[in-house]
Automatic annotation (TrEMBL), chain A:
Protein name per the record: Urea ABC transporter permease subunit UrtC
GO molecular function: branched-chain amino acid transmembrane transporter activity
Main subcellular location: membrane
Composition bias, Low complexity: 14-27
Species the sequence originates in: Micromonospora arida
InterPro entries, sorted: ABC_transp_permease, ABC_transptr_urea_perm_UrtC, LivM-like
Keywords: Cell membrane, Membrane, Transmembrane, Transmembrane helix
UniProtKB/TrEMBL annotation, chain B:
UniProt xrefs under CDD domains: PBP1_FmdD-like
Lineage top rank: taxon: Bacteria
Organism: Micromonospora arida
Hydrolase keyword on record: no
SUPFAM superfamilies xrefs: Periplasmic binding protein-like I (SSF53822)
Name of the protein in its database record: Urea ABC transporter substrate-binding protein
PANTHER family, alphabetized: ALIPHATIC AMIDASE EXPRESSION-REGULATING PROTEIN (PTHR47628:SF1), PTHR47628
Residues annotated as transmembrane: none
Keyword line: Signal
Annotated Pfam families: Peripla_BP_5 (PF13433)
Keyword Signal included in the entry's annotation: yes
């Protein structure tokens, strides 16, 4: 165990060093800065992006932001809770399929059936488990609650039995593989490898219309900001402290009288809910959900985005997810033949030279800035110690 | 306190922005007309076309050959003066063997590059993913691979075979050879599963029995169990819809289990010259394939195509059915545009009916109604040299029937 002793809780007022949760309530100045950050983000997403980007690029950004939502969840589960979850695709898929099933049924009209069912399934009537999804009052909550329920079921089994580290990662990945096999095997009712595609409307609005696509983008951007606000509250709460403590020294937390299993379960379920919501919003933005989006490879790609951005920070996962997705698009457009090598190179460079991710660039710059002022050296050492703590590998 | 108020103001502002965005909503699904298409940019003295193939990922090995053959057709057309006096400027994108990426790249080619047509896609899943994109933008896709039928998009031209030009002739051939029972082996995705539904309907109507049906995940190399089941079934023939690497493992296992082409022939629909090279002729010699074109197909047009391809890409590079269909697609598009006298998609579509091209596989004709093409069906036998020689052909081009409407036994399929 290489865990560093967790810092004792203190009420001292100090700015939040990047990458670590300051204990107690954050200082007013930090809060003001966060508020300014949110306002800046909102301005960027709501005003600048729609003005600067073409319809096509804005739709791509909407897609990246959905991936960023999954990343925020992974940031909580992995960055804060130390649970390397390589199967977020499952929850993304559950949310996505729940939404797509509802939209397909809405397209088909009352009593209608999705087109692919007649083609591949030769079914005469809608399968029983599809029926509830015809109602938006069932389908919409299901996009979030279904993934959370699955995560709860799996999590309560796994964390109680103290499965962690590589074993947990392998288990979560196996779940992704199993889900893909299930979906492909049930071609008649799930669309198989094709997935659910050709979605025409979104609650009565024609998705082919660029104006409506823009509306979907605004909903996604707003949701992402709301999730970030929620996450910030969570990691600055008493629970957030406890989660980091469990990550850094699970046995110690147990001896203190807490139940680490429940602490981890909450983080895992929240991450699953965020992935489900992301999947649900991905469907109207991109118009497809398929096993190719939720299997092992995309699940790992979610984690890569978080690693590149910096897993233990609030904004790192978002920046990383958007940067990785954007780089993928940009590189593959410019170098269609060799982009995969360039992307691999990029990952190696980031992991080798910026182990804290893109978000640590900010901390690096600030540390240099602080180092220039001898009077504040005390804070510097503190900052460094806490920054190191966030790099402790998941046990 | 002031902070809380600040947050409330921020939340209020965000709600307002969101509300503003919502009220500025566009058309409803019930509205007539809907979105208008993007028009291709043909203002200069060149015309852009999109090439959408997987250059990375599992499908790259097959799709790169299709890209090469599309490029050959583009060069030929440019050397002959282009289309309507404009040189073709190809814009390549990588679909990366990932179906949603295909959709993203299709959208990019149409709305950013404003291409006049797109050539590409291989798997059915990628076609299904891009189909809504082409329909939304009213843009054209030329799809070059044999597929499972049951589709007819107004914005896709299908230059590969549909089921009645490949699978049904394959079954007819087996029946004429006296096969009374078949065993179905396939990869686990849409094409094999749909093809096998059709095969089962055919078998029921033609007094054949299907002794078993097994699927292996794409890329699977574990065939011990399946081959044992095939062997103990004692079927007269095997119908193989496996794709990619799985074929290597399957045929190795098949041979080591003591099964042979003479005792229990395998008819494959996804093994062309390129794949034969990869699997190894020692495992495949004597086995059957169903396609519309082989490198050995006679005719001046094919000699020219094979010679030009080998001159450009190397003497050891074989030509195959999907490559030929992709090559034909570019030439058919040129003929359609020239008949229409414009690059306008709707006019090109209405000019398409009856367009013919003296293709390497023989004369092909576009059926404007289904947007498929009439093609000659061919059954071939794999030789020791890795080439496939024809053992039977339909004599004349078979009219496309994607929904198998002219086959009474298929009435329950769609």
């Amino acid at each position: 165990m290489t865990a560093v002793t967790p810092a004792p809780p203190s009420t001292a007022v100090r700015p939040a060093p990047a990458g670590a949760a300051p204990p107690g309530r954050p200082a007013g100045r930090s809060r003001l800065r966060t508020l300014a950050g949110f306002a800046f983000g909102a301005a960027l997403l709501f005003a600048v992006a729609p003005l600067v980007l073409s319809d096509f690029r804005l739709a791509l950004l909407a897609k990246y932001l959905c991936v960023a939502m999954v990343a925020v969840g992974i940031g909580i589960a992995w960055g804060r809770g130390g649970m390397l979850t390589l199967g977020q695709g499952v929850f993304f898929g559950l949310g996505g399929y729940a939404m797509a099933m509802h939209l397909k049924l809405a397209d088909a009209g009352p009593g209608g059936m999705p087109d692919f069912m007649q083609l591949y399934g030769q079914l005469d009537e809608l399968p029983l488990w599809w029926r509830p999804f015809a109602s938006p009052w069932f389908a919409l909550p299901a996009t979030v609650l279904l993934p959370m329920a699955v995560a709860f079921g799996l999590g309560s089994l796994v964390f109680r039995r103290r499965v962690r580290g590589a074993y947990f990662a392998i288990l979560s990945q196996a779940l992704a593989a199993a889900m893909v096999i299930l979906l492909i095997g049930q071609q008649g009712t799930t669309g198989g490898t094709n997935g659910l595609t050709d979605i025409k409307g979104f609650f009565g609005y024609d998705l082919d219309d660029p104006v409506n696509q823009r509306m979907v983008y605004f909903i996604i951007a707003g949701t992402l900001l709301a999730l970030l606000a929620l996450t910030r509250q969570l990691i600055h709460s008493r629970y957030g402290e406890l989660l980091v403590a469990v990550r850094d020294g699970e046995e110690r937390v147990r001896f203190l009288g807490y139940d680490p299993a429940s602490v981890k379960l909450v983080a895992y379920v929240v991450a699953a809910g965020m992935a489900g919501l992301a999947g649900a919003l991905f469907v109207p933005a991109v118009g497809i959900i398929s096993p190719a989006l939720i299997g092992i490879v995309p699940s790992i790609e979610f984690v890569i985005g978080v690693a590149v951005g910096g897993r233990a920070t609030l904004l790192g996962p978002v920046l990383g997810a958007v940067a990785v997705a954007w780089a993928r698009t940009a590189l593959s457009e410019r170098f269609p033949g060799t982009w995969t090598y360039l992307q691999g190179l990029l990952f190696v460079v980031v992991v080798a030279f910026l182990p804290g991710g893109l978000a640590s660039l900010w901390a690096l710059a600030r540390r240099r800035d602080v180092a220039a002022q001898p009077l504040r050296r005390g804070r510097l050492s503190l900052g460094r110690r806490r920054a190191e703590r966030t790099e402790v590998p998941a046990a | 306190m002031s902070i809380f108020r600040g947050r409330r103001i921020l939340a209020g502002a965000m709600t307002l922005v969101a509300a503003a965005a919502m009220t500025a909503c566009g058309s409803k699904t019930t509205d007539e007309g809907g979105a208008t298409g993007v028009t291709a940019d043909v203002s200069g003295d060149t015309v852009k076309v999109g090439l959408l193939n997987s250059l990375s990922g599992t499908m790259a090995i097959s799709e790169v050959t299709v890209r090469d053959s599309i490029m050959l057709a583009v060069e030929e057309i440019n050397a002959a003066g282009g289309v309507l006096g404009k040189k073709i400027q190809p814009v390549g994108e990588d679909g990366a063997s990932d179906w949603p990426t295909f959709a993203e790249k299709a959208e990019k080619l149409i709305s950013e590059d404003r291409v006049a047509a797109v050539f590409g896609c291989w798997t059915s899943a990628s076609r299904k993913a891009v189909k809504p994109v082409f329909e939304k933008n009213k843009a054209l896709l030329f799809y070059p691979v044999q597929y499972e039928g049951l589709e007819q998009s107004p914005y896709i031209f299908y230059t590969g075979a549909t089921t009645n030009q490949q699978i049904v002739p394959g079954l007819d051939y087996l029946k004429s050879q006296g096969a009374k029972s078949v065993y179905l082996v396939g990869s686990d995705y849409v094409f094999p599963r749909t093809a096998n539904k059709i095969i089962k309907a055919y078998a029921t109507a033609n007094g054949m029995t299907v002794l078993g049906e097994d699927y292996a995940p794409l890329g699977s190399t574990e065939f011990g169990t399946i081959v044992n089941k095939v062997k103990s079934s004692g079927a007269d023939a095997v119908f193989n819809t496996l794709n990619g690497d799985s074929n290597v493992a399957f045929f190795k296992e098949y041979k080591s289990a003591g099964l042979s082409a003479a005792a229990m022939p395998v008819v494959s629909v996804s093994i062309a010259e390129e794949e034969v090279k990869g699997i190894g002729t020692q495992y495949l010699e004597g086995q059957l394939t169903a396609w519309n074109y082989y490198q050995t197909t006679p005719g001046a047009a094919n000699s020219k195509f094979v010679a030009a391809y080998k001159a450009k890409y190397g003497a050891d590079k074989p030509t195959s059915d999907p490559m030929e269909a992709a090559y034909v697609g570019v030439h058919l598009w040129k003929a359609m545009v020239e008949k229409a006298g414009t690059f306008d998609v709707e006019k090109v579509r209405s000019a398409s009916d009856g367009i013919t091209f003296d293709a390497p596989e023989g004369l092909v004709t576009v059926d404007g109604k289904t947007q498929h093409i009439a093609k000659t069906a061919r059954i071939g036998k794999i030789g020791a040299d890795g080439l496939i020689t024809e053992v039977w052909n339909s004599g004349k081009p078979v009219a496309p029937d994607p929904y198998l409407k002219t086959y009474p036994w298929a009435s329950g399929l769609s």
